[in-house]
């Protein structure tokens, strides 16, 4: 459940973005694989999203986030290389847990002269030096900033899960078009190199992949969301997202699912899940106060866990790409079950 509000802000760049009949979803739509892994034309926005937990042989831990957005601006067929159809955006961050440091970089391109793009026939998405390519089974990612970079190979350890109803993921209760096509690969074996300040670290671990294709709709009823991707040490995964309305209450489209050791999806009753805040981080830059510590209880699964950030300041500030800020970071999981998590917090 990723940034469907954030990306739409970029559409304000063009007054024609909502006037050109971008595809609208309905509950009859569903994810089709492998087609929906690739770029899909005629949608207002779409994105490919990776987060992961990696470490060296001697136990030095890192987290990473790498996201690619394709935002529709104009559907006209241009002969000029400067014709603007899409904006391509990438957010890249690495958390150095031992060093208590968070590194971030954003990129944006109109795609002219091959600077950025996305293929409709294979997985090949790129924005300058940030690249995602491969298939549902194997992926390769590269991303580079001035003082940090990653080069990683990923292999699916579980099959994709279709979120919502066969991949139709409603985001605003009572609005059928307020939805995305959404699937995840929640467990990917990962290995490669992280470089920070000129030093290379050979790392391995796990990644989580999300893919969403967004319909054209108004999000003025939504304040933000709290999104959790939780990897438990017993080889299960939890996805929980709470979509908050303007009063700060959970919208009925909020969602939770447990993926068992064999990759089977078990939808959970969100109304029976307790989400209690235990810790806050206040940004000195934006003034936002984020709930970065959580106590989560799921009685039907005997799960009682606490989530705590490895590094307090994991706020991504996107001053010129999506014109917003949010907190997304690597966290520890303790309690009845142990593991690792990424949480994303928007609207604060």
Automatic annotation (TrEMBL):
This is Carotenoid 1,2-hydratase. It comes from Flexistipes sinusarabici. InterPro entries: AttH-like_dom_sf, AttH_dom. Keywords: Signal. Residues 46-214 form the AttH domain. Pfam families: CrtC (PF07143), Lipocalin_9 (PF17186). Residues 1-19 form the signal peptide.
């Amino acid at each position: 459940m990723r940034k469907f509000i954030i990306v739409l802000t970029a559409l304000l760049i063009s007054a024609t973005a909502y006037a050109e009949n971008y595809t609208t979803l309905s509950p009859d739509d569903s994810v089709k694989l492998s087609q929906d892994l690739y770029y899909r034309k005629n949608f207002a926005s779409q994105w490919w999203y990776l987060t992961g937990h990696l470490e060296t042989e001697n136990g030095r831990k890192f987290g990473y986030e790498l996201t690619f957005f394709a935002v529709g601006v104009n559907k006209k067929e241009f002969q000029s290389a400067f014709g603007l159809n899409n904006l391509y955006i990438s957010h890249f961050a690495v958390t150095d847990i031992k060093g208590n440091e968070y590194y971030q970089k954003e990129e944006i391109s109109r795609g002219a002269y091959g600077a950025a793009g996305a293929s409709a026939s294979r997985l090949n998405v790129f924005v300058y030096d940030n690249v995602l390519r491969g298939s549902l089974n194997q992926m390769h990612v590269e991303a580079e900033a001035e003082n940090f970079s990653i080069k990683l190979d990923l292999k699916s350890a579980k099959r994709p899960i279709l979120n919502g109803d066969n991949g139709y993921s409603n985001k605003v209760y009572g609005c059928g078009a307020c939805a995305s096509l959404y699937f995840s690969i929640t467990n990917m074996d990962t290995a490669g190199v992280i470089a920070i300040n000129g030093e290379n670290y050979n790392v391995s671990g796990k990644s989580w992949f999300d893919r969403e294709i967004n319909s054209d709709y108004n999000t003025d009823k939504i304040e933000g969301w709290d999104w959790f991707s939780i990897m438990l040490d017993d080889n299960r995964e939890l996805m929980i997202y709470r979509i908050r309305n303007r009063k700060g209450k959970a919208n009925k489209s909020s969602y939770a699912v447990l993926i068992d050791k064999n990759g089977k999806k078990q939808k959970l009753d969100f109304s029976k899940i307790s989400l209690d805040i235990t810790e806050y981080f206040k940004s000195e830059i934006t003034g936002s106060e984020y709930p970065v510590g959580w106590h989560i209880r799921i009685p039907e699964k005997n799960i009682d866990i606490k989530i705590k950030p490895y590094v307090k300041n994991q706020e991504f500030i996107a001053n010129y790409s999506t014109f917003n800020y949010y907190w997304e970071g690597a966290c520890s999981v303790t309690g009845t079950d142990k593991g690792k998590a990424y949480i994303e917090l928007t609207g604060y």
